[in-house]
Amino acid sequence: MCTGKCSTFIGISLYPLAILSIICNIVLFFPDLKSTYAKLDADGLYRLTDEVKYMGGVIGGGILVLIPAIHIHSTGKKGCCANRCGMFLSILFAAIGVVGALYSIAVAAVGLINGPVCMTPNGSWGRPFINISESYLSDSKIWDWCRDPKNVVEFNIGLFSALLVAGCLELLLCGFQVINGLFGCICGTCNNKE
Question: Topologically, how does it sit relative to the membrane (predicted)?
Fold first, then answer.
């Protein structure tokens, strides 16, 4: 396969993953799909999971992947970027994408491991699953420890899992682009106008 066509495929594949990461991270700010928890957290009350505020999906899996995706996609088109220099730059941009994807993966993994912030049975707000011996992910019976917001455990697991999967796919695609860009630097982009 031509390195230019491969770059186009990788760039186009990164767009929906970056947008998915941004959307998932933004939705995580609204547990139970209500803005009251974000407002209370902004007022100094502990209502949102810390990993949501680290913006791994917006910054890491979103912006730090979306900007490289634009350049990677353009290296596959005939024009100013579809040459050896453009392929070399795509390696640098893909490396930035790798860093962004790794950040998104790390934040999502920690968010999944630590669990959500919720109101516990004793009426206080906190993270009830953070210091237990077994994983709450494999024991859905203890999810009832979270009284408010409703279904916050499922909400966090679903969205952090989507961020984790999107981050892993972004990492693979950006890693492939580093290799593809290296071949593009050496062999060219298969376009007639090199």
Answer: Multi-pass membrane protein
CA distance 39 to 126: 17
Residue type, 26: I
Regarding pTM above 0.85, the answer is: yes
Rg (CA), the chain: 20
Q: How many CB atoms lie within 10 A of CB 170?
A: 31
Q: Which of residues 169 and 34 earns the better pLDDT score? A: 169
Which residue in 60, 130, 44 sits closest to 101, CA to CA?
Answer: 60
Q: Count CB atoms within 10 A of the CB of residue 40.
A: 14
Q: Is 131 exposed, middle or buried (0-12, 13-18, 19+ CB in 10 A)?
A: exposed
The answer to whether the beta carbons of residues 65 and 101 sit under 8 Å apart is yes
What are the tokens at 120? 């516990």
